[in-house]
Write a structure and sequence with these properties.
Order of helices and strands: HHHHHEHEHEEEHHEEHEHHEHEEEEEEH
Structural class: alpha+beta
Helix content: 25-40%
Radius of gyration: 24 Å
Distance between the termini: 51 Å
Strand content: 15-25%
Strand order of the largest sheet: 7-6-5-4-3-2-1-9-8
Shape: globular
């Protein structure tokens, strides 16, 4: 299985001006800094970003003006007085911010991409995140994660379900893209404590369209557990208002608003816990990860073909980025036969066999290694099903 075309590649094919401005910003940053750090959208504004933001706003106003017949100047006056229009305008600005800084940081750190296989994600969805926040480290300060797992896509949309029985029209053929960036230094002007920040910009879509966007910023306090990090409350931490997060259905502009932190604490927790487990996995001891290199010659040939492709063909393209294929040999969650033989089917308190099957969740363990056992390495203990094999249960003789 090949990695599908990434959101970075989709933007590059569709938005030439964005990449021209990012290229200019990147040159300035590399020239002026001996050690390159990720660029935070809350930092001093880059002139290239301001130019891109203005271009996106003008493009939006131009389209609306052409469709409505209202001059752009009149529309600007309307925006200043109409709260509904102002909200839509804020979303255009937010989208420009997401695109510009995701692409800029991704390019600054070498366009590193990780493609996670479905079986691995099923395992990580059933793994506890029982580690201190200081254990989170990215192989690169900014990278792109790509997921195709159906259960993870369901978790991504759980924030939008009004009730458990509601059916959502979800495109499971389209991947989820997550741009992950870690900021090593705290912005002391707005935070009341020291620590790091982890920014997760998540999109679900394909070459044709983006269906859903979620952005979440997490605080990594060295004294916290990762479950506390997942429930970061920026209103409590920050001395002034911060851009905390976003949940947006791109096809429903009236259903887009900045996210209150608490909405991520329940329904949104499953998805972001799995993403953090994915980050832990690629930085753990001996992850199942294989490098897939794409030559520059192949990339140039593919670009020529793309120009003549239909929209449907572009949607089905595989990526031309080099990437890490993560979890290709991980098996589905199965019954651990060795555990079953020893004690899985036996309840010592009642002296009876366990006739039902249940999940034993995975977890992370720190194992002492090295001379004098002074060092540690992080090991992933996979989840497994415990209890009697289903075939054995139905074939068991019963007296009636």
């Amino acid at each position: 299985m090949h990695m599908p075309i990434t959101y970075y590649e989709i933007l590059k094919d569709k938005n030439k001006e964005l990449f021209e401005l990012v290229s200019l910003a990147k040159k300035t940053i590399v020239k002026n800094n001996e050690v390159v750090q990720p660029v935070h959208s809350a930092d001093k504004p880059l002139k290239e970003f301001i130019n891109y933001e203005e271009k996106e706003l003008y493009s939006f106003l131009k389209v609306v003006s052409q469709n409505s017949g209202i001059p752009i100047e009149s529309m600007i006056n309307e925006i200043r007085t109409n709260s509904d229009t102002q909200n839509i305008l804020n979303i255009i600005i937010e989208n420009a911010t997401l695109e510009f800084f995701s692409v800029l940081n991704f390019e600054l750190f070498g366009k590193k991409t990780f493609f996670f296989r479905d079986n691995l994600i099923d395992n990580l969805l059933n793994t506890e995140i029982n580690l201190p926040a200081k254990e989170i480290h990215l192989p690169f300060d900014s990278c792109q994660l790509v997921f195709t797992n159906r259960n993870l896509i369901d978790a991504f949309y759980s924030l939008h379900k009004k009730n458990e029985n509601e059916e959502l029209n979800i495109d499971y053929k389209s991947p989820i893209y997550v741009f992950v960036t870690i900021y090593q230094k705290t912005r002391n002007d707005v935070l009341n404590r020291c620590g790091r920040e982890l920014e997760l910009t998540c999109l679900h879509g394909n070459y044709s369209q983006v269906y859903m966007v979620q952005k979440r910023r997490l605080f990594l306090d060295d004294t916290w557990e990762l479950e506390e990090t997942l429930k970061t409350d920026w209103e409590y931490l920050a001395s002034k208002k911060l851009d905390r997060g976003l949940v947006a259905n791109i096809n429903q502009l009236d259903n887009i608003s900045p996210a209150v932190d608490s909405i991520f604490y329940e329904d949104g927790l499953i998805f972001f816990r799995a993403v953090l487990n994915s980050v832990l996995y690629i930085s753990s001891e001996n992850p199942d990860s294989v490098t897939v290199n794409k030559s520059s010659i192949t990339q140039k040939t593919k670009k020529k073909k793309i120009k003549n492709q239909t929209l449907e063909q572009k949607r089905n393209n595989s990526s031309e980025l080099s990437y890490q294929d993560v979890g290709s040999s991980i098996q589905p969650i199965i019954i651990d036969k060795s555990m079953q033989d020893k004690f899985s089917n036996f309840n010592s308190s009642t002296q009876k066999k366990i006739l039902r099957r249940f999940m034993v969740r995975g977890h992370w363990r720190k194992q002492r290694v090295g001379e004098g056992l002074k060092d540690f390495k992080r090991i992933w203990i996979k989840p497994y099903l415990k209890g009697q094999d289903f075939a054995e249960a139905i074939n068991k003789p019963y007296l009636v």
